[in-house]
Amino acid sequence: MNIIEKKILSIFENRVLKQGCVLEVRAWDSATFFEVDLHLPDVDMEKWTSVQRIKVRVSEYTYRDYTPALWDVETHTCTLCISSEHSGPGSDWVSSLKRGDTISYVGVGSTLHKPVFDSRLLCLGDNSSIGHFLALKQLALGVGDVYGAISFNNEAHAREFSEYFDTYLQPIPDKNRGISLVSWLEQQELSNETVYIAGHCPTAMELRTYLKQRRDFSGSIKLLGFWD
Ligand SMILES: Cc1cc2nc3c(=O)[nH]c(=O)nc-3n(C[C@H](O)[C@H](O)[C@H](O)COP(=O)(O)OP(=O)(O)OC[C@H]3O[C@@H](n4cnc5c(N)ncnc54)[C@H](O)[C@@H]3O)c2cc1C
User: Fold this and answer.
1) What are the phi and psi torsion angles at 91 (to 5°)?
2) Which atom of ligand 1 is nearest to the CA of 111?
3) How far is the CA of 192 from the centre of ligand 1 (A)?
4) Could you tell me the distance, in angstroms and rounded to a whole number, from the CA of residue 81 to the centre of ligand 1?
5) How many domains are contained in the chain?
6) Mean pLDDT for each 10-residue chunk of the chain (228 residues)?
7) Closest of 117, 141, 109, 130 to residue 198, by C-alpha
8) HSE-up of 227 (CA within 13 Å, CB side)?
9) Helix, strand, coil % (nearest 5) of the chain?
10) HSE (CB half, 13 Å, CA atoms) of 225?
11) Cα separation of 64 and 34, whole Å?
């Protein structure tokens, strides 16, 4: 980025960036997955009817999307669930966060994923999509039956996921990305579910291709790729 582009971006940042406060950071063991509790005073969470994305400034001129989950409308708080198994500016940012830090973000916007009522909601993804499916579950509360599976590269994290969260999503230790999710699907009877797929883009495509070939499946597929 040249000097002029940097100047334009910093003018833009000064105008649009909003601030939030880190209330707590919980690292899983090993510390390559984090739950980050945030206070976002400027966000009206009451209006959320679909899964949201927040665009966070993770380093100079660099932004990443994360998914606000487990929100509380009254207190303006939510939790981000962030994987940092790989190296990148987002991973460096989340690994450095601590209670009391201020975060900057451009805004919060909707994704196209919202619960379809009167349908079973089948969720499939990797650990970067945990927040996404927690959010979908919160939106579907009392109306839709949510189930599915999440794949984990890290076996300890798969165990921690079961301990910390509701078990409506089955953790699958997975060193081969999509393969284990396909194996899990092979054991499921399908009918007219709404299937939500999020996370690693090539795995998401692979799962969609597999589902389209299933003769017993007559539902719909909603796909949101996070990373390649
Ligand atoms: C709508 C939306 C919501 C998202 N919500 C979340 C969320 O709640 N939690 C979350 O963790 N991520 C989420 N992501 C992904 C996130 O925005 C970043 O892409 C991710 O954190 C990587 O950023 P980075 O700077 O750490 O790595 P990058 O510099 O972007 O990537 C570095 C390398 O790491 C690889 N990589 C990226 N992510 C992963 C991963 N999870 N596991 C293994 N390798 C990876 C990339 O392919 C690349 O090769 C979301 C993305 C979108 C579009």
Assistant:
1) -65, -45
2) 1
3) 30
4) 11
5) 2
6) 84 89 97 98 96 97 97 98 97 98 97 92 97 96 88 94 87 78 95 97 96 97 97
7) 130
8) 18
9) 30, 40, 30
10) 11
11) 15
Are residues 85 and 176 both part of a single domain? no
Q: Which residue's C-alpha comes closest to atom 53 of ligand 1?
A: 226
CA distance 67 to 53: 5
- Phi and psi at residue 213, to the nearest 5°: -85, -10
Contact assessment for residue 117 and residue 143, using Cβ atoms and an 8 Å cutoff: yes
Do 127 and 29 belong to one domain?
Answer: no
Task: State the CATH number of the domain containing residue 43.
Answer: 2.40.30.10
In a domain, 10, yes or no: no
Measure the CA–CA gap between 2 and 208, rounded to whole angstroms.
41
Residue 111 · residue 53 · CB < 8 Å = yes
pTM above 0.90, yes or no: yes
Check if the beta carbon of residue 139 is closer than 8 Å to that of residue 115: yes
Neighbours of 128 (CB within 10 A): 23
Q: Is 154 close to ligand 1, i.e. is its CB under 6 Å away? A: no
Identify whether residues 151 and 194 lie together within a single domain: yes
